TrEMBL record:
This is Leucine-rich repeat and WD repeat-containing protein 1. Integral component of the ORC complex. Directly interacts with CDT1, GMNN and ORC2. Interacts with ORC2 only when non-ubiquitinated; this interaction prevents LRWD1 ubiquitination and degradation. Some of these interactions are regulated in a cell-cycle dependent manner. Interaction with ORC1 occurs predominantly during G1. Association with phosphorylated ORC1 during mitosis is not efficient. Interaction with CDT1 occurs during G1 phase, as well as during mitosis with phosphorylated CDT1. Interaction with GMNN occurs from G1/S to mitosis. It comes from Camelus dromedarius (Dromedary). Residues 69-79 have a biased composition (Low complexity). GO terms for biological process: chromatin organization; DNA replication; establishment of protein localization to chromatin.
């Protein structure tokens, strides 16, 4: 049996930790699938088990791209009239000239037409400085370096048809469609352009048929992802076309109807994660317009590529070798006759079908089983344990607490960001020498140089080394590192009301409240420490009180459940536990470890300790109201939920408040689901007997996941706010994703 999380985390010699190096792997793609949609994704080096030495070190930041709001210094070659001078006013001239191109070109020549390589980096060039008439004279140019400038777009008619290598790193590019003018391009660098997203990576792969490398990495996996998306989008647009044409009345004009079809397709055809919506809508519009222009009612799959015929020939040879070289693309061997979790789900043996004896409405189907954290990219790695997962906040305004279908998972030296619908690993962040224990999301509103507001999803990740890494997921880099604790960090939690307030709980028995601030124009965070909370034991779970999150913080600890006053208007910046909560016999004993803690609604708390086979539902308001001046308070129990009798610890429960649901894994690989709405609606006194789960989601048998899997223990299970997707983590290095079947 694998070592348990908190016994493993504190083991190992206290030697010097490895230097911090980190990298993002974007657009890993879905790869081949087995019968249950199993995907094995790429992974890098193994994680360190060594605790940090305790020496104070300055945080090492990933090199950020140039700032959004840096003042623009005068570009070389600009001329203007001085104040007081006579004569006509001279307009600013562009910094590029034939003389400058000759000076910076290779091989050395006095003719522009013979230059093959040109370095225009670091000249503070603006988009309007790229003169097409001048650059089009570079008839033989094959390599162009435009990095470290201030380009927002590329002119669409530069006339560099033979260009093979283009460097545009560290600019302000916001669109990549102009790159289609370089059909021979093989290598491209776009790092450090903060406004480019994963969708732009896919557009690049689609527009440039001969592209082999992007940002120094092989582009084959992205090409494969584009082909899969392309195929699915074409199928969906075709189906939408047929449905649209069938509903068209003879009186409607053909031209207007065709225009309406393009609009409706862009509006209604959806596929893939929200982070790829820009690419999918872009392709849907292109496919729709071609479909309308052709006048055909069907588009065959052979017509999917929008590129010239030679594109297919270019893509084919570079897709095939990837599957044979990368172990990460080999699916887990799932035998077809071992499909599990089919709807309707099996109920708990001997328990009622639902609260009222009817068939439960909640039904889940397995979508994906991914092994995306394995060290050395080996499907045989079952030792890299997964510790935490969290759903990204929704981007729609006015939806407080809503989450998307994008989930972040952590384990070993990697943090992965996964789209639950497609099973694609959208991003992967690796920090050799680290072991990540916790992740938490926040959404920040920043203002660009042009005065536009942009919303950033920032992911905080922390673990063994006591560092908090702030990851700008969509731009794909680490914005900053906070040296939060000298010992390992067990868990993280953002405040639900203050987007920049972050709680960190460490093995040093302290909880610290940080204000990470808003990043400056160089994408750097300047975090400040607001409060230090002292605990008598290690805090395992953090939970701001739902009805007053700015006032009190609950924590499930090794020694019980504690509460702190976290009001910032109080003078003390270092505080001890305000209240310790104790549980009656039959639920949780006083002083017993509390390894599960979450609010079911604004008043009801779900908590779990190890060894007693129950989950306790208790009232915050009634418990706090009975406190008086006591430092130890017995909780007011509302109900108990029947759970596994295991003596193993560190199974984290979670809740879905909008659905009135409690979730928890167990040692057998099961997921226990409780619909507690009927319990919350009851008037006291409630039933004393523990309530059985509404249903248990069964994990596939070990032989169904491959002969090497001998044990599957669900450490953590989380659902998004609408309970559409459910993500479970196991001690066997597998991320499992289920989808809800709506009744």
């Amino acid at each position: 049996m694998p070592l348990q999380p908190h016994s493993r985390r504190t083991s190992g010699a206290a030697t010097a930790a490895a230097a911090i190096t980190a990298s993002w792997h974007q657009g890993a793609g879905a790869g081949p699938r087995g019968p249950l949609g199993v995907v094995v994704q790429e992974q890098g080096m193994s994680s360190s088990r060594i605790l940090p030495s305790g020496r104070r070190r300055r945080p090492i930041r990933a090199a950020p791209p140039p700032g959004l709001g840096q003042p623009l210094a005068p570009a070389p070659g600009l001329q203007c009239r001085r104040s007081g001078q006579r004569g006509p006013r001279l307009l600013a001239m562009g910094p590029l000239s034939a003389r400058l191109l000759i000076q910076r070109g290779r091989p050395k020549s006095d003719r522009l037409g013979k230059i093959r390589s040109l370095d225009l980096s670091g000249l503070k060039l603006l988009s309007e400085h790229l003169d097409p008439k001048l650059l089009s004279r570079l008839k033989q140019l094959q390599e162009l370096d435009l990095s470290n400038n201030q380009l927002e777009t590329l002119p669409a008619n530069l006339g560099l048809s033979h260009l093979r290598i283009l460097h545009c790193a560290n600019n302000q590019l916001g669109d990549v469609t102009a790159l289609c003018q370089f059909p021979q391009l093989e290598e491209l660098s776009l790092e450090g352009n903060p406004f480019l997203t994963v969708s732009d990576n896919l557009k690049v792969s689609f527009l440039l048929p001969k592209l082999r490398k992007v940002n120094g990495k092989d582009a084959s996996s992205t090409c494969s992802q584009v082909e899969n998306l392309n195929r699915e989008l074409t199928i969906r647009v075709t189906a939408h076309w047929e449905k649209f044409m069938a509903a068209l009345s003879p009186e409607e004009g053909a031209e207007k109807a065709q225009a309406d079809f393009v609009k409706s397709a862009v509006r209604d055809v959806r596929y893939g994660p929200d982070s790829l919506s820009d690419f999918t809508q872009w392709r849907v519009r292109m496919i729709s317009e071609e479909l309308v222009a052709s006048g055909r009612a069907q588009v065959h799959e052979a017509d999917v590529p929008e590129k010239p015929p030679q594109v297919t020939a270019t893509l084919e040879p570079r897709i095939r070798p990837v599957a044979s070289k990368r172990l990460g693309d080999v699916p887990l061997s799932l035998s077809p006759n071992k499909r599990v979790c089919t709807s309707p789900l099996a109920q708990v043996e001997g328990s009622p079908m639902g609260p009222d004896g009817s068939q439960p409405a909640l039904q889940l189907e397995p979508l994906h089983f991914l092994q995306c954290h394995s060290k050395n990219n080996s499907p045989q790695d079952l030792d890299t344990q997964l510790w935490a997962c969290a759903f990204e906040p929704a981007w729609e305004e006015g939806q407080a607490g809503a989450t998307s279908q994008t989930v972040a998972t952590c384990g070993g030296e990697a943090v992965c960001v996964i789209d639950c619908q497609t099973g694609m690993v959208l991003h992967k962040y690796k920090a050799p020498g680290e072991e990540f224990f916790s992740v938490a999301w926040t959404a920040l509103m920043v203002v660009t140089q042009a005065g536009h507001k942009k919303r950033w999803s920032v992911l905080a990740a922390a673990g063994l080394r006591g560092l908090v890494r702030l990851l700008h997921v969509r731009a794909g880099f680490c914005c900053g590192v906070i040296r939060a604790h000298k010992k390992a960090i067990a868990t993280l939690c953002f405040s639900p009301t203050h987007e920049t307030h972050l709680f960190t709980a460490s093995y040093d028995k302290r909880i610290i409240l940080w204000d990470i601030g808003v990043p400056n124009h160089d994408y750097e965070f300047q975090a400040s420490q607001l409060l230090t909370l002292d605990a008598t034991s290690i805090a395992l779970r953090l939970c701001p009180v739902a009805s007053c999150p700015d006032t009190y913080l609950l924590a499930g600890c090794e020694g019980g459940c504690c509460c702190w006053d976290v009001r910032l208007d109080q003078p003390q910046k270092r505080r001890v536990c305000e209240v310790e909560f104790v549980f009656s016999e039959g639920s949780e004993a006083s002083g017993r470890r509390v390894d599960g803690l979450a609010f079911v609604n604004e008043d009801v708390v779900a908590s779990k300790g190890s060894g007693l086979g129950t989950i306790c539902l208790w009232s915050w308001s009634q418990t706090w109201g009975s406190r008086g001046s006591q430092s130890t308070v017995a909780v007011v129990v509302l109900a108990q939920l029947q759970w596994s009798l295991t003596e193993l610890a560190y199974f984290s429960l979670s809740t879905c408040p909008d659905e009135g649901t409690v979730l928890c894994g167990d040692e057998e690989g099961n997921v226990w689901l409780y619909d507690v709405r009927h319990i919350l609606a009851q008037q006291p006194p409630l039933l004393a007997a523990p309530q059985p789960p509404t249903q248990i989601l069964k994990w596939p048998q070990p032989q169904a996941l491959g002969q090497t899997v001998t044990r599957t223990m669900v450490n953590m299970v989380v659902a998004n706010s609408t309970f559409t997707y459910l993500t479970a983590l196991t001690d066997s290095n597998i991320v499992a994703i289920w989808r809800r079947n709506q009744p």
